[in-house]
């Protein structure tokens, strides 16, 4: 009778069992430097445009004008590029922020494919073979972490309203600078080789460090894999971009909550971000007792809605465009020009240094906003009392709201209670 082998403890794994630190662990035949180079060049163009439009979005808030506008007060030299945001063309913010958000969504499959293509390098040993290699690994770590942080926070802000009640701005702003610094360093290290590989292929004497030494049987070619990534991006484009338009196109925006059908019908039946009920505006506050306070060098005046309607009324066709990327087409607003109210407040030429706008809304970001002198002077900047031929609805800011060309939606304050013209 044969003796049974004695158990001496837990069985050890076979020495040949692949681990993530070994190249043989990664067997996809799709991986390779050329595949990664193509994705990298797409991201180079796309992320650069994302960064530029993101900086423009931040500038549109005029953060250096007043503390109420500045959500990143410790930005220091990171705000060196800031400039006075213009009022024309009137669709400027609708374009820049629409591109920023839509492009960010469209690039998700490309980013995921790029991360998948280089994941073996994240496990490569030793961690650093030289100073240059250590710098490359550090830039890669910051690049991957920064990309995931920026894309995840951006997507969550689009999908979940008020998830970051005011903290989104500093999180996304500072995160963007860290990410782009790593992206720039990585680009400087990798771009020359990527261009050489795409133009001339991999030299015979140089091995493809991303290709598997023992590839599995192929199920899709590298061109096919790129086609799948492109199809994913196209699908995201078709199911998200419609939120920047009214009518039938908005109904195609299945992946963006604010891209659904318009709220109701009629003149006030276009997109909104926050309702009167959500921010706690009671009907009594906007009824007959409501008064607008206008303050400036000439003193302080209180005007009823009837008195505002008795003033000269002007019209302007302007969209609403929000930081989440959604926007409306041009709506016809009618009301009192801000420059006329500036004249009433004590600036005879209608050219005050700016105006502080305060809402009945008592909490939440941008309850108060400051507008620049160029925004007050523009004849299209209105204290709007009606839209598309009818009075404002409560959710669109009744009894009065500000509407300014090219300004972010949150700068077009609803339920206005006070305008203070002068030094901010």
UniProtKB/TrEMBL annotation:
One of its GO terms (molecular function) is oxidoreductase activity. Keywords: Membrane, Transmembrane, Transmembrane helix. Residues 1-20 are annotated as: Disordered. It comes from the Bacteria. Gene3D superfamilies: Oxidoreductase, molybdopterin-binding domain. Residues 285-421 form the Oxidoreductase molybdopterin-binding domain. The chain crosses the membrane at residues 35-61, 99-119, 140-159, 171-189. The keyword Transmembrane applies. Pfam families: Oxidored_molyb (PF00174). InterPro entries: Mopterin_OxRdtase_euk, OxRdtase_Mopterin-bd_dom, OxRdtase_Mopterin-bd_sf. This is Oxidoreductase molybdopterin-binding domain-containing protein. It comes from Streptomyces sp. gb1(2016).
């Amino acid at each position: 009778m044969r003796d049974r082998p004695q158990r001496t403890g837990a069985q050890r794994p076979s020495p040949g069992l692949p681990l993530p630190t070994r190249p043989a662990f990664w067997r996809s035949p799709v991986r390779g430097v050329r595949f990664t180079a193509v994705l990298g060049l797409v991201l180079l163009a796309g992320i650069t445009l994302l960064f530029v439009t993101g900086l423009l979005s931040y500038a549109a808030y005029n953060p250096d004008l007043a503390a109420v506008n500045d959500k990143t007060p410790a930005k220091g030299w990171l705000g060196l590029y800031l400039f006075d945001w213009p009022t024309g063309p009137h669709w400027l913010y609708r374009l820049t922020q629409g591109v920023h958000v839509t492009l960010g969504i469209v690039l998700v499959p490309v980013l995921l494919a790029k991360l998948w293509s280089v994941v073996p390098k994240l496990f490569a040993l030793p961690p650093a073979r030289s100073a240059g290699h250590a710098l490359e690994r550090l830039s890669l770590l910051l690049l991957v972490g920064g990309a995931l942080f920026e894309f995840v926070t951006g997507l969550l802000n689009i999908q979940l309203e008020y998830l970051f009640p005011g903290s989104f701005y500093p999180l996304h702003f500072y995160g963007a600078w860290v990410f782009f610094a790593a992206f720039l360093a990585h680009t400087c290290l990798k771009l020359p080789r990527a261009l050489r590989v795409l133009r001339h292929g991999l030299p015979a004497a140089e091995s493809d460090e991303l290709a598997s030494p023992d590839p599995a049987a192929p199920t899709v070619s590298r061109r096919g894999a790129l086609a799948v990534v492109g199809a994913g991006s196209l699908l995201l484009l078709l199911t998200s971009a419609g939120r920047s338009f009214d009518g039938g196109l908005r109904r195609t925006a299945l992946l963006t909550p604010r891209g659904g059908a318009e709220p109701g019908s009629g003149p006030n039946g276009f997109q909104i971000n926050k309702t009167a009920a959500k921010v706690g505006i009671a009907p009594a506050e906007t009824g007959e007792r409501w008064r607008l306070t206008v303050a400036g060098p000439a003193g302080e005046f209180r005007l009823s809605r009837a008195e505002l309607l008795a003033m000269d009324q002007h019209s302007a066709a302007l969209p609403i465009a929000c930081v989440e990327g959604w926007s409306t087409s041009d709506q016809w607003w009618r009301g009192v020009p801000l420059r006329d109210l500036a004249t009433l407040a004590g600036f005879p030429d209608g050219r005050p240094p700016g105006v502080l706008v305060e809402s009945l809304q008592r909490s939440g970001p941008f309850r108060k906003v400051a507008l620049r002198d160029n925004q007050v002077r523009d004849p299209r900047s209105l204290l709007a009392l009606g839209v598309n031929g009818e009075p404002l609805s409560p959710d669109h800011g009744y009894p009065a709201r500000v509407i300014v060309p090219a300004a972010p939606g949150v700068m077009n304050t609803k339920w206005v209670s006070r305008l203070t013209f002068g030094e901010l």
